[in-house]
User: Which sequence fits this backbone?
């Protein structure tokens, strides 16, 4: 596969997204917020559609990256903050809150997407590519947006790594230490939403959660501290993302987002199989 100048922004954006997704996913998985990531991913669709229609109405263009990112961020945050509110309602519970929020926002997004496609410029909007990703269409402006979001998220995670680690290991102990548990949980949620928004065009709204959780789950199979697990998850996410680009470039019928998730899943299966094989050999020798 030859790498032209147009492929460099694609590889850079995908590598950055994979690294950030793996790192953030470690804390999301430790806090048992995996389904919340799924809600945030699906809930970004109506925000993207509304932003597109708004951009067309005011004449700035519906495909403006900053506008689509802003719309996705607002709707994903709204859905994420609706979950704990719904969970407090009698008879709903956490699982019901997640299901209601996901189904409502994604259903609303599907309806709005139909309206976008029937819009005068909707056929050129290409928003349906956001469902499963279209990394090949990434431009340098998209790379800049992903790089800014990645830098912000990484800066937050590095600055608060000790506090987030304490919260991930034991929430009650974190409270005893006087840490602001709710604020730290909100920080994880904001980092989660930022990562989802950054990966919309790369992995797609439907599959972005897989790139958040699978590298983190793979890294957790390895021994070591939370810092080592987070670093390993970032590396696995970056390699899987770049590998997905290579696979989709080689086999043009395979969407990039699907190839990324398959590469991440393959790393999990291979590592799990290797660990079981080593343990099995150790038991036989003993």
Assistant:
């Amino acid at each position: 596969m030859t790498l032209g100048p147009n492929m460099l922004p694609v590889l850079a954006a995908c590598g950055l997204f994979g690294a950030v997704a793996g790192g953030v996913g470690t804390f999301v998985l430790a806090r048992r917020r995996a389904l919340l990531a799924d809600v945030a991913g699906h809930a970004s669709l109506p925000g993207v559609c509304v932003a597109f229609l708004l951009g067309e109405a005011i004449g700035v263009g519906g495909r403006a990256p900053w506008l689509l990112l802003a719309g996705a961020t607002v709707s994903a945050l709204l859905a994420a903050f609706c979950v704990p509110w719904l969970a407090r309602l009698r008879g709903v519970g956490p699982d019901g809150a997640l299901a209601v929020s996901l189904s409502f926002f994604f259903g609303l997004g599907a309806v709005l997407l139909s309206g976008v496609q029937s819009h005068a410029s909707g056929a050129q909007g290409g928003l349906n590519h956001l469902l499963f990703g279209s990394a090949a269409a990434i431009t340098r402006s998209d790379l800049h947006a992903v790089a800014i979001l990645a830098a912000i998220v990484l800066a937050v995670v590095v600055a608060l790594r000790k506090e987030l680690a304490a919260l991930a290991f034991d929430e009650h102990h974190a409270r005893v230490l006087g840490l602001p548990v709710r604020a730290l949980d909100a920080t994880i949620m904001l980092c989660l939403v930022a990562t989802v928004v950054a990966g919309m065009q790369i992995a797609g709204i439907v599959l972005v959660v897989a790139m958040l959780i699978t590298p983190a789950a793979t890294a957790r199979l390895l021994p070591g501290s939370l810092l080592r697990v987070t670093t390993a998850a970032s590396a696995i996410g970056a390699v899987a993302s770049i590998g997905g680009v290579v696979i989709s470039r080689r086999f043009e019928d395979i969407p990039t987002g699907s190839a990324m998730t398959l590469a991440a899943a393959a790393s999990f299966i291979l590592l799990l199989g290797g660990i079981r094989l080593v343990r099995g050999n150790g038991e036989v020798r003993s």
